[in-house]
Structures are given as structure tokens and as C-alpha cells.
Amino acid sequence: MAEQEKEEEKKQEQQPNGNRKATKRAETTEEEEGKKNSQQRRKRNGDSYLEICGGQTSIRPYWRCYFPNTQAIIYVVDSSDTDRLGIAKDEFHAILQEEELKGAVVLIFANKQDLPGALDAAAVTESLELHKIKNRQWAIFKTSATKGEGLYEGLDW
Q1: Which long-range contacts (CB under 8 A, 24 or more apart) does 119-122 make?
Q2: What is the pLDDT of residues 125-147, one digit of tens each?
Q3: Is 47 labelled a binding residue?
Q4: How far apart are the first and last CA of the chain?
């Protein structure tokens, strides 16, 4: 009975657009705060979970909260922001060195292909030095998240 009440409470908290409204604020640990700030979204599709973490500098230290049991990494790069591709490369290769991620396959989305000046997949591959990836499956796909292009092709890989 208590479980049904919890489900009803969740439904009542749900807003029409699918976002949950805040009802109570509890004290959180630093790790929980980092998870909250990472703008995580957990979606269930069969037995798969997807954790979405932002790339802001303040959030990156909390990425490791999601490393245990990770089977795949989806790394999204802004292909139009050539000034920050060096940072994206350094962060990407640092992630690949993490012991908990050694067995994870890697999918790279070269995003924002709809913007002028966006680098194609070959140029992003070179900028991120993907040729240095050894002993790991990886693929790169050109995407435009706003137009929904390339996303399903990448996820089907």
C-alpha cells in the first residue's frame, strides 16, 4: 500500500511538460550535490540506463560518480566550437584512462553540424586524436541534436 501511495505522490508532483516540480529541499552530500549539478537524467529502456552529464568545468569532477559499471560512453563535441576542441580532446583522453571505464565502448557525436563552420567527422577525429585510441571499440557520427540528425544512427551502432 505504501508503494502505491508513493507512486500517486510522484504522479501528483509531475508537471504537464514531464518535469518534476520541487516540493522539498533536503540536505545533500557533496557527491549528491555534484550529481544534481550534473543535470543528470535517468531514462530506463529495457535494461539500459542513460546518465547525461554536462560538460561545464564545475561539473567534470563529478563525472566519476557515473563510472562504475559503465558499458558505453557517449561523448558529445560541439563541432562548431573549434577554440574549445583542445579542451574537449584533453578531457576525452583523461576519461579513457580511467580504470573503471577500460571496457567501455566509445561513441562520439560530432554535434552542431547544422551550424556554419562546423568541422566534419574527419576533422573532429583528427582534432580529438581518435587514432590514438587502442584496444577499444569507437565510432564517430555527425549529428545535429536540434534537427535530430545522426542521433539514431549513432545509437544503433
Answers
A1: 119/79, 119/80, 119/82, 119/85, 120/79
A2: 999 999 999 999 999 999 999 99
A3: no
A4: 43
Residue 13, C-alpha cell as written in the block: 508532483
pTM over 0.90: no
Q: Any catalytic annotation for residue 56? A: yes
Which of 14, 56, 71, 137 is catalytic? The answer is 56
Cα angle 10-15-20, degrees, rounded to a multiple of 5: 55
The three cell numbers locating residue 16: 504537464
Produce one character per residue of 33-53: b if its CB has 16 or more CB atoms within 10 Å, e if not.
Answer: ebbeebebeeeeeeeeeeeeb
Q: Is 112 annotated as a binding residue?
A: yes
135 carries a ligand binding annotation: no
Structural domains in the chain, CATH included, are 51-157 (3.40.50.300)
